[in-house]
Design brief:
Layout lengths: L5 E2 L1 H8 L3 H8 L3 H8 L7 H11 L3 H4 E2 L6 H6 L5
Antiparallel strand pairs: 1-2
Length: about 80
């Protein structure tokens, strides 16, 4: 069994005002696949993760991680610095 891949995909999509359908069409998958990824029910392939990062103009590690992401407020305001 593979390790869970954590993601910020829903947050990035919302920030950029991109629908699941639009993202799915841009990266060549079904829109439900985007939902599965966002809910942690499906780990994207490396190819798909790279396509998603490229679509948003972000490094893949800004969207996906093997470790849980710290809450965004912690990163912005420096709370609970590790």
């Amino acid at each position: 069994m593979s390790e869970q891949v954590h993601n910020r995909l829903a947050m990035v999509r919302a920030e950029r005002k991109v629908s699941r359908q639009a993202l799915a069409e841009a990266v060549g998958v079904h829109y439900q696949t985007i939902g599965y990824i966002e809910r942690g029910q499906y780990n994207p392939s490396l190819d798909l993760a790279l396509k998603i990062g490229k679509f948003f103009g972000l490094p893949v590690e800004a969207v996906f991680s093997l470790e849980p992401f710290r809450p965004l407020t912690d990163e912005v305001y420096g709370r609970n610095a590790q």
